[in-house]
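User: tokens in, sequence out, please.
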């Protein structure tokens, strides 16, 4: 018996088509390349470390003034709709005006939290404190990180 040409079928291709997977990976790569600089943008400061700081969660409506390693000011506020805005750059000349606008509407707490780079000259921190006082800030709290302390093993 001879096999006829009508009964033979083409061989099934067993190769995996990776083109769609490569397309997805390239799209993800592009997304991460665009998003990463936006995430790291803002204040770049190494905060001084304290041995026993009190741990406190950030409350809604707090105003935080950041000073980065280059001495630039950043304001961190909660928007009126309750949405967190993140650190926003503020020119030296506009800082007092912005702080005055924020603290003029406050009736109870006139507290500002200050976060400054540890290698920043103290004169720059002092300038920020003076500007804040002129704008109506009554209490300034410092933000620091927990210093890592090595503990000796018991029995030593």
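Assistant: Sequence out:
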């Amino acid at each position: 018996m001879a096999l006829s040409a009508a009964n033979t079928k083409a061989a099934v291709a067993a190769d995996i088509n990776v083109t769609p997977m490569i397309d997805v990976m390239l799209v993800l790569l592009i997304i991460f390349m665009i998003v990463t600089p936006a995430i790291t943008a803002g204040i770049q400061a190494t905060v001084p470390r304290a041995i026993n700081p009190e741990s406190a969660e950030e409350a809604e409506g707090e105003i935080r003034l950041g000073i980065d390693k280059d001495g630039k000011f950043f304001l961190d506020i909660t928007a009126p709709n309750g949405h967190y805005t993140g650190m926003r750059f503020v020119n030296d000349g506009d800082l007092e005006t912005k702080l005055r606008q924020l603290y003029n509407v406050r009736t109870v707490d006139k507290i500002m939290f200050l976060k400054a780079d540890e290698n920043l000259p103290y004169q720059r921190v002092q300038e920020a404190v003076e500007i804040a006082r002129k704008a109506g800030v009554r209490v300034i709290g410092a933000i620091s990180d927990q210093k890592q302390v090595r503990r000796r093993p018991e029995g030593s």
